[in-house]
Specification:
The structure is a homotetramer. By secondary structure, the first copy, chain A, is an alpha/beta fold. Chain A has 5 helices and 7 strands. In chain A, α4 links the parallel β5 and β6. Chain A is globular, with a radius of gyration of 15 Å.
């Protein structure tokens, strides 16, 4: 069973690829395409220790298919089934900035409504940290954001892919630390 | 033909009712339920002088059905068919604040991506303006936001209904002024 | 020494009072007025396990005096001295909604830039949870927000005061759990 | 007398330079450094037909010095002295995205509280519009955002400078159109 479920929807495949790069860094992570979510998937989500939210940014906020999934979580909001789980978020877009911040804010707000603990990006980007190459190159901190690569096979550029992997590592570390805190 | 199209989706009817109250104030306004949008509706939108965006706030941002409509506008984004139209927005929710601000921000951002001119709320709310009764009682300015009434027949409380009507008046005035500016 | 430092600025006293109510709930919390911050205060902040950010919302975002403090934290941003500390935020305003959400978003973003772990509100508000009285009555989740009381002696209304105390408890629990996670 | 006042504060000079590029495009625009604002400047602002807001983004939102200016506008908020003026905003930062969106949102919210009419960016950026060179290259639409150039003499890169100039043109066109709408 996976500790961390990476919920996503994808258009041309960029967001799914970004999710896969996060999964490379997170130990024990599974991907869940919210457009084909089934009853047993909800049970998996309720049992998970961390849930990540990921969607393309379309017209300035999260894609409709993902928003529909977000809305569906209102069913168990009153029961606060996700309270105190670790949360994080990621998005893709065709521009470097591209109002992707608003998508991340809507994810952080969703997480807060569920009483989740939000873990953002911890890689300071260029130009500040030039020794760090192009990690977090556009400077997003509330979560992870990538610019869609025009290379149809890579989809996500190497620097963004490595930024994603590190975000996965960070989520896994937070899950371990937060989880150990409850062990007797 | 209507100058102003009030695009909305609705759950239990509150947002539709709020749209109707705006329409009472706006001259020559028509309502459009985006969940049943047809090809000729898109043509009406492209011909309109003002477009308002309205949706319930679910889990901290605009309802999925409305987001799906927002996404569909990307089809003509490159052509900037909505550039320089007047825009505004409104939302409903079950709590006074309830992260409805984020919904309004996503509408203002959508409007900006289309090069539209954003017209927000102009009623200063209580407690500042006590002579104004309960108009804009919760204090939203980027657009219009109402708290769902528990009275199943009114749906929108009288103070919010009047705030909506005044927002309609404001939109109509902006449409007239902005439109006259192009007349030779 | 205090685990948790509650950073705030205050205008007419409402935000300071709200900070005091949080401190009642948080074990081992100290208040810090950022308008009189001294060198040794920065050292205390760097040593703390949790830092809360609190300011009045003026004209739609955090008060200038607090923003000046936020800017000053850029001095040690590259060193990420606050990475993995627990963070939270609170604000006051004269209206129920009053764009206070934007203030909380700017605090969550600041925290993310420092690599902090964000802990929001966990009290679901009315009308959903009617058994819970007026706790979180306006429905803010990203953090804590109160409406300034016109009663000059109480400053913060009882329901908001209790919401604040509970937020303090939640922060303390997160600090304990997150801290225990690092113990060997 | 100037129709349009471009209010700004600046750190290392980038934001002032960006303001100058906007002024090249806007007819009849004057710059106003809000850190040295005097009584007669407030009178000029009250008489202007358009006001632009510009500040560096520091730690995820507008610089403290500019926020202090924003707060000072609360003095005449009740009188709505700025109602129906044209408004716009711009910011600079060291990263392409860098949470500059939040700064623009705080400006749009300030404008809305004053009942102003918000005019955003109308240049669609790459990669969509490749014929347009690097105009609006990072994809910001709510307003204008530039990445600080490391070239100490140019401060703002040529593509961003031209994007700024075009934003100035757009503001001037909106001022003219909106103004003509009131002429009898």
């Amino acid at each position: 069973m996976s500790d961390t479920i990476i919920c996503y929807c994808t258009g041309a495949g960029h967001t799914r690829r970004l999710a896969e790069h996060i999964a490379r860094g997170a130990s024990s992570a599974a991907l869940l395409d919210v457009e084909t979510i089934a009853d047993e998937d909800w049970a998996r989500l309720h049992a998970a220790r961390a849930i990540l939210f990921g969607a393309p940014t379309y017209m300035g906020s999260a894609a409709g298919a993902f928003k529909t999934f977000m809305d569906a979580t209102s069913d168990f909001w009153l029961d606060q089934l996700w309270q105190n789980k670790i949360a994080g978020g990621f998005t893709t877009g065709s521009a470097n900035a591209g109002d992707k911040s608003l998508t991340l804010m809507s994810f952080a707000t969703l997480a807060a409504q569920h009483g989740m603990i939000w873990v953002g990006q911890a890689e300071i980007g260029p130009p500040a940290n030039t020794s760090n190459g192009e990690i977090n190159r556009d400077g997003f901190w509330l979560g992870l954001a990538a610019t869609a690569s025009r290379d149809k096979s890579e989809l996500i550029m190497p620097a963004d892919a490595e930024t994603a992997r590190r975000y996965g590592v960070r989520i896994a570390e937070a899950v371990a630390r937060w989880g150990k805190g409850t062990a007797n």
